Amino acid sequence: MTPRHEIGVVSDFVAGAARQVIVAGHPVCVVRTGDGHLHAIDDTCTHADVSLAEGDVEGHTIECWLHGSRFSLDTGQPTGLPATVPVAVHDIEIDGERVLVALKEKTP
How far is 44 from 64, CA to CA, in rounded Å? Predict the structure, then answer.
């Protein structure tokens, strides 16, 4: 079983905004979309190696602030160039008000 890490409470995450949290030494971008869903993805853009948490959220997509790459918050797949490599999507769970993240295990 993958360990779950508490990263805060639901009210810590503002709708329509992204925030970086460090989970077991790993930077994670947590987004609460306008419809209230929470998402957790790797915080590093696969194109330019910068923080995605500094980007803009639109629906279930985040846009990298540097070159405009866009990623699906649901799948991690790039939805706009120049990025072509997906970011990892991590499991997020709400337990009462607590927000927990389980990092996706890296595959070889």
Answer: 9
What integer pLDDT is reported at residue 106 of this predicted model?
A: 59
Which of these, 35, 32, 51, 44, lies nearest to 92 by C-alpha position?
A: 32
Per-residue pLDDT tens over the stretch 30-61? 999 999 999 999 999 999 999 999 999 999 99
**Burial (Cβ within 10 Å: 0-12, 13-18, ≥19) of residue 36:** exposed
d(CA 71, CA 86): 7
Give me the domains of the chain, ranges plus CATH numbers: 5-102 (2.102.10.10)
Bridge partners of residue 39, in order along the sequence: 31
Give the alpha-carbon dihedral of 56, 67, 69, 17, to 10 degrees. -10
Q: How far apart are CA 90 and CA 74, in angstroms?
A: 10
pLDDT in tens, 83-108: 999 999 999 999 999 999 999 975 43
Token pair recorded at residue 76: 């991690």
